[in-house]
Amino acid sequence: MALLKRHIRHHSLEEAEKRNDIGFGTLVTDVPTRLINRDGSFNVKRLSETFWGKLNLYNRLITISWQKFFLLVISYFFITNLIFALAYELIGIEYLHGIELTNEWTKFYDAYFFSAQTLTTVGYGRIAPHGFIASTVASIESLLGLLTFALATGLLYARFSRPEARILYSKNALIAPYLDITGLMFRIVNERQNQLIDVTVELVFTILEQTPEGKKVRKYYGLPLERNKVQFFPMNWTIVHPIIEESPVFGMTREDMLKGEAELFVLIKATEDTFNQSVHSRMSYHAKEMVWGAKYESMIWEKNGMITMDLSKLSDIREVPLTSEYIPDDKYEESEKQAD
Fold this sequence. Notes:
Blueprint: H1 2-18, H2 51-55, H3 57-63, H4 66-91, E1 96-97, H5 104-119, E2 128-129, H6 132-161, E3 167-169, E4 173-178, E5 181-190, E6 196-210, E7 216-222, E8 229-232, E9 237-243, H7 254-259, E10 263-272, E11 277-286, E12 290-292, E13 294-296, E14 300-303, E15 306-309, E16 317-319, H8 329-339
Parallel strand pairs: 4-12
Antiparallel strand pairs: 1-2, 3-5, 4-5, 5-9, 6-7, 6-8, 6-10, 10-11, 13-16, 14-15
Helix pairs in contact: 3-6, 4-5, 4-6
C-alpha cells in the first residue's frame, strides 16, 4: 500500500512538472473574459493589500503618463504654496516685511508669491520674514522645496532614461492561408524611430478543456513559430504559427475557440539600441479578436529608391478563402453559419 501511494505521488509530481503553466494557474475557468489586457496589464484585481503595497509610489510616478505626471507636479506646487500662504496669513501678514497692506487680496497674493519664491529658493528680496515663527515656517518651506525639487529631478531623469518598447499590434489576429496550409498570425511594428535589435517572440495559446472526469481546466500550449527571432526590426513583422497536425489549434473552429475562451498570449523581448538595455512588450488576442479567412494588406512600398511604410495600414485586412487540410470545407461552412 505504501509503495502504491509513493507511485501515485511520483506520478502526480511528474504530471505537475509537465504542466505548462505561465503563471495564471489551471483553475481559472469561470472568467468570461481575457487574462491579459490589450495594453499588456494583467486582468487581475487584488484585494486586502496593505496601504504601502497598494500605493507603490515610485512605480506609479515612473509609469504614469507624462500628462498625469506634469499635472501632479503643477498641482503639488500650487497646493503647497497655497498651504504656506494660508500659514503666513495665520501667523500675521505684518510679519512679512515688504508686503503691500492695501487690501486683503493684495496681502494674500503677496504671501502666495513669497511662498513660491521661498519654495523654489529664488528669494527676490522684496519680501522677507520677520520674527521667530515666520522665519521658522519660511526655513521649513525652503527645506521642503530643496527636497521636492531633488525628488522631481530624479523622477524626470528616471522617466527619460527608462527604455520602453513602443510596439504597435494589429487589431486582430488572423487565421489565414499560409504556404499550402493555414497559419495563425498577427502583425507588429515599432512605433518609434529608435532601433530594436535581437527581437524575440514567444506565443502561448490557452483554452478551457474538459477532463475525462468532467472538470474544466485551463491548458496552456507554447506555439512554435515560422520565425521567432529577427536581428533587426526596421519594418513590420508578421508573426506566423503554422497550423499543422501537431499544433494545438489544428482542427479547431471559431466556435470551439469562443466556447473555450481561447486567448493568445504574446511576449516580445528586444534590446533597445539607444540605452543598450532589454525591453519587453506583452499583449493578448482573445478568440473574439481572431478573424478567420483574411490576410493583411501590404503596408510597404518602394518609390524612388526609398522604402516607405504606412503605419496606419497595420490592421488593414481583406477577406480570402480559407480551405486547407486544417479545416474541411463543410466544417468551415458550418462554423460560418454558427458565427453569423
